[in-house]
Amino acid sequence: MDKNTIFKQAFRFIDKQQFITVGTVTKNNKPHVSPKILVSGKETSFIVADYILGKTAKNLKNNKYISISAFDIEKMVGYHIQGTVSCIQRGSEYENLVKQWDKRQTTSMRDRVIERVQGKRSIKSIELTILKPKIFYKIKPLQIEKIDRGKVFESL
Fold first, then answer.
1. Each residue's pLDDT tens digit, 64-87
2. Which of 7, 9, 138, 139 is deepest in the core (most CB within 10 A)?
């Protein structure tokens, strides 16, 4: 599989995911993994939202390398992406990302309510709150690996 095919497939796949796993490293080289929420995936970068200025943000101040992964258990396909990050906390780019975020979350919330009404989703909790992210991570991929039924395809 060629590099461009894997990149396009990864961007389409990741953009459909809502939750992804983000890995960073502390200044003492200890791994840290945390669930985050994807805002968008374009052919040059991914935008990830974070509600907390916690360990992920702290780690990325010391080391701009990041790893993200997502997996579809039904299809047995996933992607692992390594790249570099720029952090966005203010300004017009931040405000535009908040608008994208609000739109994506509103659509997702609407779809979950419809699924509950149709009996496709249990009513254990109702999410009616849209939290405003404190920071966005713009991830530029350096390496993408596709995991497909036990085989790994790599793109640099």
1. 999 999 988 888 888 999 999 999
2. 139
Rounded to whole angstroms, the Cα distance separating 49 from 132 reads: 9
Environment class of residue 22 by beta-carbon count within 10 Å: exposed (0-12), middle (13-18) or buried (19+)?
buried
Residue listed under structure tokens 């993408």: 144
**Separation between Cα atoms, residue 88 and residue 86, nearest integer Å:** 7
Interatomic CA distance for residues 152 and 154, integer angstroms: 6
Domains of the chain, with CATH numbers? 3-121+130-155 (2.30.110.10)
Q: What is the DSSP string of 113-133?
A: HHHHHTTSS--S------PPP
Which tokens go with 56? 């992920």
- Tell me the average pLDDT of the chain: 84
* Residue 50 vs residue 11, higher pLDDT: 50
Cα-to-chain-centroid distance, residue 88: 15
